[in-house]
Amino acid sequence: MASRKLRSSELVTALGVVILATLYVGASFAAPVDYLPTGQQVSLFWPPTGIGLAAFFYLRPLVTAPTILVSSFLLNASFGRPLGPSLAAAVATACGLTAIYLLLRWVDFHSRFDRLRDVLALVFLGALVGGMILGWASVGALVLTGVFPPGLQWRMTLLWGMSFGTGVLICTPALLVLRHARWPRRIRPLRVVEAVGLEAAAVAVVLLIALTAAQPLFLAFPVVVWAALRFQMAGAAPVALFLSAATVYTQTGAGPWGGQLVSEMGVIEGFIASMTLTALLLAVIITERDRAYRDIRHVSDQLLLAVDKLDRRLRPRPSEIAGRRDEIAQRRDPMAERQESRAAQPDR
């Protein structure tokens, strides 16, 4: 029995490694990419960083880090870089993602996103600090190996750090929500209709942004607010991922910023960050509010039961009342007994 469980665990781990490597490498080819005038590659957001960070919460760190190392090495080599710089960049990426994971563990990060501090930890430690750590480590490795000129180190660190941080902010919440997803005990038809309507609204917004000249980006915010209010993190994170990825899609020159990725990168990053933060923060606030209501209801029920129990203990039971009445009836007043004895004596 123990050996069977061990084989089953090893099979699940091997399957997780294959899935992680496939997603890590495959997502890189779907990332929106542009090039600087000097030839360096930049991306609006880099999905492999978000996928790699989320993988630490699915698999053991000692399994995840080597998988990211090998996947990143193959990815860098596919870009035509020499083996030495590819290995250096892969080591920097694996060490950087491991450092972000340890930072999140240090602050007691919950992958369920059931507290406001979890979202803030992912935003500040995972996206901002972590993105800059990854950017500095990766660019530094490529500068030391001669791939990037030293004069571009700080600019590339900033651009790659923004790209890595946005990848964490967009992809990691959706993947961690999927980890804790459970099939509902009771499926309500109206809930299903609302979920389908939400997805239809998200697709309609993307089409309006991509196909109209007005580029109504503000229409994305009502959709993410709807998802956060009604479905909390389970709806907000996937919808924010879909809207962010689809709206700013620029690989083929489509979308509102087609062909202007580098020059408009700050505007794009601001739009993605604003929309995603709105979705995540509102979702976790609604989650905390609902949990507070449940706690208050539970405490109220417990208090009601305690008061009822105390009332039953203090209130005399019917049997005790009857026994007390009989005891009082049997007790004779000494003065009344003397009067009765005098009345019973004959007159002389």
TrEMBL record:
<feature type="transmembrane region" description="Helical">
    <location>
        <begin position="157"/>
        <end position="181"/>
    </location>
</feature>
<keyword id="KW-1003">Cell membrane</keyword>
<keyword id="KW-0812">Transmembrane</keyword>
<keyword id="KW-1133">Transmembrane helix</keyword>
<feature type="region of interest" description="Disordered">
    <location>
        <begin position="321"/>
        <end position="348"/>
    </location>
</feature>
<keyword id="KW-0472">Membrane</keyword>
<feature type="transmembrane region" description="Helical">
    <location>
        <begin position="87"/>
        <end position="107"/>
    </location>
</feature>
<protein>
    <submittedName>
        <fullName>Integral membrane sensor domain MASE1</fullName>
    </submittedName>
</protein>
<feature type="transmembrane region" description="Helical">
    <location>
        <begin position="201"/>
        <end position="229"/>
    </location>
</feature>
<feature type="compositionally biased region" description="Basic and acidic residues">
    <location>
        <begin position="322"/>
        <end position="348"/>
    </location>
</feature>
<dbReference type="GO" id="GO:0005886">
    <property type="term" value="C:plasma membrane"/>
</dbReference>
<feature type="transmembrane region" description="Helical">
    <location>
        <begin position="119"/>
        <end position="145"/>
    </location>
</feature>
<feature type="domain" description="MASE1">
    <location>
        <begin position="16"/>
        <end position="289"/>
    </location>
</feature>
<dbReference type="InterPro" id="IPR007895">
    <property type="entry name" value="MASE1"/>
</dbReference>
<dbReference type="Pfam" id="PF05231">
    <property type="entry name" value="MASE1"/>
</dbReference>
<feature type="transmembrane region" description="Helical">
    <location>
        <begin position="266"/>
        <end position="287"/>
    </location>
</feature>
